[in-house]
């Protein structure tokens, strides 16, 4: 079972509502990213994640890596912003 489905099942969420193209944010808890190629920059206030087709910058408070394996990345902490990196 992919990590995304496991998270959705444990939190009791509807997958169709929670799903995003590359990521899903669970406000105040965590964020899940799929098909991650690498982490370019990491701090407790910001993370830059690379994908095959581009990159995302995640901003927040108390960010930490919960799991990073097989292209799946879980960030714990308060995510306040996710944006494309040019």
TrEMBL record:
Protein name: YabP/YqfC family sporulation protein
InterPro entries reported in the protein's UniProt record: Spore_YabP/YqfC
Protein source organism: Candidatus Borkfalkia avistercoris
